[in-house]
Design goal:
The complex is a heterodimer of chains A (296) and B (965). Chain A is α+β, with helices and mostly antiparallel strands. In chain A, 22% of the residues lie in helices and 28% in strands. In chain A, strands 4-5-10-6-7 form a five-stranded antiparallel β-sheet. The two termini of chain A are 34 Å apart. Residues 285-296 of chain A have low confidence and may be disordered. Chain B has a seven-stranded mixed β-sheet with strand order 10-12-8-19-16-17-18. Chain B has a five-stranded mixed β-sheet with strand order 2-1-5-3-4. In chain B, strands 14-23-22-21-15 form a five-stranded mixed β-sheet. Chain B contains 27 helices and 35 strands. The chains are: A alpha+beta (296), B alpha+beta (965). The interface between A and B is large, with 51 and 68 residues. Chain A: This is FAD-binding molybdopterin dehydrogenase.
Chain lengths: 296, 965
């Protein structure tokens, strides 16, 4: 929609231009969130796309023995610019050893918006909107990515992506802060993952998105999003038994109710999905290249 | 900035915060539509350098240097792209408002994308079709009506009527291969080529020089008196022309609801009131040069509210001492049952002796059901443009009118009724007002209201300037009336064999803050739902009450859908109790063609069985369900399967008069050049219901010509005779009948004129042909006749006699007992539409009705916070069905011919909606052993039925409990 109170658009060329940001001046990435709701408090926008951040950059590598007899493979990590579109991320080809690669597309499909929204909506914008159902939040948290924040005072700050979103539409950014990138470690990309999403309709806004990640060192983390106001991670030194996982999921304390599902249902179906994930990642299915995925 | 739109260079500067959608429309490319303005519906989809985007969330400045392609850039009438032609051939639209964006999106898909169509189309919402025809258009297939796998590129001979065994009267219309385009064929909508290329103008698709924009300030209070308003800052803002408040409002009370008889609805509304009765109510309006200025000025208005006690629950509203929503109203003057009890209307009546009927019953079932608020969600929001014109032409051509005329171009189902009421409100001579519609982008009952015309009329009369008022999508959720939520209590008694001995119905409807449609919905809801059954003892106690919630209004089915949900669920329970098949229970207890129709007394004599196809519908649906399909049950012990059915009856026309006048004229100008053409003038509006198509077919059949030679002018109070309006399913059986009568009248006139030329040949021996009349060797061209005189036929219909139509729906479902997911394995609807005028289009109406009803049954709910605030105010929080959400419904037609409708036709637009929710609830009951009593049957609600222990921690526990004995 037209943002009729916005009187200026500033194309940012370098970090200093971000000094314009404030309570009435917001950073603009793809625009799908900003232009999708009235923003009568805003008088200006600072365009981040003109900063020209490379969308996707392969980073430091991990040398991994993938199978007992196949030697070693160099597995790269990934730096995702905040301004990378969801479409770009969803199309990224797998690098060697990226067992977690299917998650990129799976999490893109968890976006409420259509593939046409993917063409403009950005990974960083999705995190910054900080909706419980933000699938890029799910993705970044599940891969134990770090976010790089450009603080208003010129300093840089890194923190776990899982801590970035603090509540329903709230996050750690203060006025003038900008999310710069999401840094995904190679160790997570080399992990086996299992993804589940449920909503009140087949492709509706997510009621719960759960992602399990079984690392090469057998550690397991279940990331629970969409049903909770912020990402919740359950960590285990190895795959837990069904009873333990069920008890821990049921013990999560930040389920919420909105038009996309009642809190009690979200808790219950998260238990169901968590168990499906646990079963899928059980060691009996050791072949890392083949694991069924998809919506419930 | 410079860019190209469809190859044409544009040099124009967008406002800094402008989105691409409105920028493109500023360049008069009206083919880019606004359905939501929030990136959810896809009606605004365009390509930017070949990449599809939702232009409403795309910053306009980013289009600099790009090539923008709209649907018009894909193809234009006469030169359609294949994807556009396939939408024409597959009847892949009804109102057509979503079509431009749908086709732009489809144009980017490749063959390999088709398997992923549900996901790829989730950002394109269609409220009319149910998507089957859209999927067919995109895939280039035609799915047969029985739902079996579609055949590729089967583009000729669309969808024959499935052959069934007729049981009742044979058809009177010819069953041999009909001439193309006449009744019984699947003619495409006359506007098809323009719709698929974005060239068919809707309400706001017009450039009006000097147009001002109106923005409305909404109440933040659920119930309050306005102590004072400060508007001086707003009025002083540069660009503001007028600030309108209750000080400017006419003092005349009216109802936003419109009916043939204006006394049907209570007069309880003012254009602006000094008391607000729901959050979101209009309290002031600003008229300004731009919408941005009008909105800014609205933010400068300060209002001092004196809060008043409010009531949000209809039960509470009836309790002694409850806050009174319209306590200030005079019951007689406003036509309210009892404003001192918040009671708008009530019905209490008994036929026979229900207590005795229950006492003699072997089996008694009783229960309570609750339906939710549903939003119509027509893709085109409410909107009006008004302006003044010099009064020289007053439509009668009898001389100069002094004074200017007010013109309203509006998105309405009822332009003639709007005309009447606006004249009354503003004390206008009827000749000084013209109301007309362009093609209307969907309605479903939501445009049987005055929601924009009144304030635009006031603004135009005040400023003398053209003024536009367009609802946002959030306005639709927070300002425009929703479907009435109802509590329905049903008690049934039956003897040993399952024969009903008593039927007792209780209805409590929450009509919200205003009484528009409150009496009508309550009475109609309690009518055919009850009269469908032959029961010696019946009782109805129905009440419709005010609360401080969003007003409720007219919605497809007009109350029947809600009450049928309760009655048909109770009958299903009875069938279980008796141990009888639910189809057989209906056969045993439904009225037959010789039975009286009884609610609390015998209906009629206007309501008759003009035809009867319920028996066929029951047979067709039951047979299809027994036949099954190859849809697999999902694997796992947590999936359980069930079947269910429900029946619905509806009168083919609203009661107490529904009027239509029509004329058909031989076009003298065109006769010589392009062959003989006719112009049909008819008042009813086209809003996706397809009446224009059927009217063309009716006229072509009567005049023995082809529909491409017929021009239809419609829904304009200046140009055309009166029409009550496009509601109550009247488009074919009332307006269509008037068109047919006019065409027949003209055919007689033409024969008479031919005889005047050839006195030796009697008038009845002439046969009409497309370009003339023939009698043996003699041929008279229509061109010759047109030279001599104006040849015109007229027709009228008054709806004095009404028939009934039937729909039976059946489902087979699988329910996931772990998550509450309901998966529809088979969906079947059998319909008694009389002689089907246009099989493919009628099928589309049924599919669309089923789709909307599945939305109601499983997904949709306008949620209020309990204090009057709507929390589902954007489309992404109000889930209407996507392609991914819907099964292909098998559609079967009974073979009947109605004695009242044109060529034996019956209406089939509201009714397909009505049996769907109870049929689905009954199937879920069969699957899980627990009866759902509350809509929507969302996954969380179904899960909670299965896991009642979860209720303790539930913030959204059901408000009603199953109460079966």
């Amino acid at each position: 929609m037209d943002l009729n109170t916005v009187l200026t658009i500033t194309a940012a060329r370098h970090r200093d231009d971000l000094a314009l940001l404030g309570p009435q001046v917001a950073p603009l990435a793809g625009g799908s969130d900003l232009f999708g709701d009235p923003q009568t408090h805003l008088t200006g926008l600072v365009d981040l796309q003109t900063l020209g951040w490379p969308a996707l950059t392969l980073t430091e590598t991990l040398t991994e023995s993938l199978t007992a007899d196949a030697g070693t493979t160099a597995v790269p990590g990934l730096s995702i610019a905040a301004t990378c579109t969801i479409a770009e991320l969803s199309r990224l080809p797998a690098a060697p050893g990226w067992a977690a690669h299917p998650l990129f597309f799976q999490c893109a499909t968890a976006l409420y918006g259509s593939f046409k929204i993917w063409n403009v909506a950005t990974v960083g914008g999705n995190l910054c909107a900080s909706l419980p159902a933000g699938p890029m939040t799910s993705l970044a948290a599940a891969l134990d990515a770090e976010v790089l924040i450009w603080r208003r005072d010129g300093s840089d700050e890194r923190m776990p992506a899982s801590a970035f979103v603090t509540g329903n539409t709230t996050n750690v950014l203060g006025p003038g802060d900008v999310l710069r990138s999401i840094e995904v470690p190679a160790s997570s990309l080399a992990a086996r993952t299992a993804y589940r999403k449920i909503s009140l309709s087949p492709l509706g806004r997510s009621g719960a998105v759960l992602i399990g990640r079984l690392d090469r060192d057998r550690r397991f983390v279940l990331t629970v999003t969409a049903g909770t106001v912020r990402p919740v991670q359950l960590r285990y030194s190895s795959l837990p038994d069904a009873g333990t996982l069920a008890r821990d999921v049921a013990g999560i304390d930040c389920w919420f109710t909105d038009a996309h599902g009642a809190a009690d249902w979200r808790r219950a179906v998260s238990g169901v999905l968590g168990e499906e994930i646990r079963t899928e990642l059980e060691p009996t299915a050791l072949d890392a290249t083949e694991h069924p995925t998809g919506d419930l | 900035m410079r860019l190209q739109i469809n190859g044409e260079p544009i040099d124009a500067s967008p406002a800094p915060g402008q989105c691409l959608r409105s920028f493109i429309r500023d360049q008069e490319h009206f083919e880019v539509k606004k359905g939501c303005d929030t990136g959810d519906c896809g009606a605004c989809s365009v390509l930017v350098d070949g990449t599809p985007v939702h232009s409403c969330i795309y910053p306009a400045f980013r289009a600099e240097g790009t090539q923008v392609t709209t649907v018009a850039g894909i193809g234009l009438p006469g030169d359609l792209a294949p994807i556009q032609q396939r939408f024409v051939d597959a009847a892949g639209f009804q109102c057509g408002f979503c079509t431009a964006g749908m086709i732009v999106t489809a144009s980017t898909l490749t063959e390999t994308d088709l398997d992923d169509l549900p996901r790829l189309l989730k950002g394109n919402l269609c409220r009319c079709t149910g998507y089957r025809s859209i999927a067919d258009a995109i895939r280039g297939t035609h799915t047969p009506q029985d739902g079996s796998a579609g055949s590729d590129a089967c583009r000729t001979g669309m969808g024959p009527v499935v052959t069934t065994s007729p049981r009742t009267s044979p058809r009177t219309a010819p069953r041999t291969t009909p001439r193309p385009g006449t009744v019984g064929t699947s003619l495409a909508a006359p506007a098809s080529e323009r719709v698929v290329s974005g060239q068919e103008p809707y309400t706001l698709d017009v450039e009006v020089p000097g147009l001002l924009h109106l923005s409305v300030l909404q109440s933040t209070q659920a119930h309050a008196r306005i102590r004072s308003m400060k508007t001086d800052l707003a009025a002083a803002l540069p660009g503001v022309h007028s600030v309108l408040t209750h000080a400017d409002s006419p003092a005349t009370l009216y109802s936003t609801a419109r009916h043939e008889d204006r006394l049907d609805d209570p007069d309880d509304t003012l254009v602006f009131d000094s008391v607000v009765r729901f959050r979101g109510q209009r309290v002031a309006a600003v008229v300004a040069d731009t919408l941005a200025i009008a909105e800014a000025a609205c933010r400068l208005i300060e209002i001092d509210y004196e809060p008043l006690p409010a009531v949000f629950d209809p039960h509470d509203a009836l309790r002694p001492g409850a806050p009174l929503v319209h306590g200030d109203k005079d019951a007689a003057a406003s036509r309210l049952a009892d404003p001192s009890r918040n009671l708008v209307a009530e019905l209490h009546g008994e036929y026979g002796d229900v207590a005795a009927g229950l006492a003699e019953a072997t089996h008694v079932v009783t229960g309570s059901w609750q339906t939710q608020r549903v939003a119509h969600t027509h893709l085109e929001t409410h909107a009006t443009i008004g302006w003044l014109e010099p009064g020289a032409e007053n439509g009668t051509g009898t001389g100069a009118e002094t004074g200017e005329r007010l013109i309203l171009r509006t998105s309405s189902q009822v332009p003639f009724l709007v005309h009447r009421e606006i004249c009354r409100l503003f004390d206008l001579d009827p000749a000084r007002l013209r109301v007309f519609t362009a093609r209307v982008g969907g309605g479903f009952g939501g445009k049987q209201e005055i929601l924009t015309e009144d304030v635009v009329a006031l603004a135009v009369l005040k400023t003398g300037r053209p003024v536009q008022y367009e609802f946002s999508r959030s306005d639709e959720f927070t300002l425009s009336p929703a479907r009435h939520p109802m509590q329905i209590q049903v008690t049934l008694g039956a003897d040993d064999a399952g024969r009903l001995t008593a039927l007792k119905l209780g209805v409590l409807a929450d009509t919200g803050a205003y009484g528009n449609h409150a009496p009508g919905v309550m009475f109609h809801g309690s009518s055919e739902s009850v009269s469908l059954y032959r029961v010696p003892n019946k009782r109805v106690d129905a009440q419709s009450v005010y609360t401080n919630n969003l007003p409720s209004g007219a919605f497809r089915g007009y109350g029947l859908g809600q009450v049928i949900f309760g009655v048909e669920s109770a009958l299903d329970e009875l069938a279980r109790t008796v141990g009888q098949n639910p189809f057989d229970l209906r056969r045993l207890n439904s009225v037959g063609p010789t039975d009286p129709l009884v609610v609390t007394h015998e209906e009629g004599p206007d309501l008759i069985f003009g035809s009867y196809g319920l028996d066929q519908c029951l047979d067709l649906a039951q047979a299809a369900l027994a036949r099954g399909n190859d849809a697999p049950v999902p694997p796992g012990a947590h999936w359980t399967v069930g079947e269910g059915m429900a029946t619905a009856m509806i009168a083919t026309t609203p009661p107490r008069g529904h009027y239509a006048q029509a004329s058909v004229t031989l076009d003298t100008a065109a006769v010589g050049r392009t062959g003989a053409r006719y112009t049909v003038r008819v008042g009813t509006a086209e809003f996706g219901n397809g009446t224009t198509t059927v009217h063309a077919q009716l006229a072509a059949t009567a005049l023995n010509t082809t529909p491409d030679r017929i021009t239809i002018l419609q829904s304009d109070t200046d140009a055309i005779g009166y029409d009550t309006g496009a509601f109550g399913s009247a488009g074919v059986v009332i307006a269509g009948k008037a068109v047919l009568a006019a065409a027949n009248d003209l055919a007689d006139t033409l024969r008479q004129a031919a005889t005047e030329r050839h006195g030796e040949i009697p008038a009845d021996s002439w046969t009409l042909e497309p370009d003339g009349l023939r009698s043996a060797e003699t041929f008279v061209t229509l061109a010759e006749l047109a030279e001599a005189s104006v040849l015109r036929g007229v027709g009228a219909e008054d709806g004095a006699r009404r028939s009934v139509a039937f729909n039976v729906h059946a489902f087979r479902v699988a329910v996931n007992t772990q998550t509450g997911e309901v998966r529809i394995l088979q969906s079947i609807q059998a319909a008694d539409a009389g002689v089907v005028m246009n099989p493919e289009q009628c099928r589309g109406q049924i599919e669309g009705g089923v789709a909307q009803a599945i939305g109601t049954a499983l997904y949709e709910e306008v949620i209020l916070d309990g204090a009057g605030t709507v929390t589902t105010s954007v489309l992404r929080n109000y889930h209407i069905p996507l392609l991914a959400d819907l099964p292909v419904t098998e559609v079967y037609f009974a073979q009947t011919s109605d004695v009242l409708g044109p060529f034996g036709a019956k209406s089939m637009s509201e009714s397909p909606y009505n049996p769907v929710a109870p049929a689905l609830a009954n199937a879920v009951r069969d699957a899980i052993g627990i009866r759902p009593t509350e809509l929507p049957m969302s996954r969380d609600r179904i899960w909670r039925l299965l896991h009642p222990a979860g209720q303790s921690s539930s913030p959204a526990a059901p408000t009603t409990e199953p109460d079966q004995s």
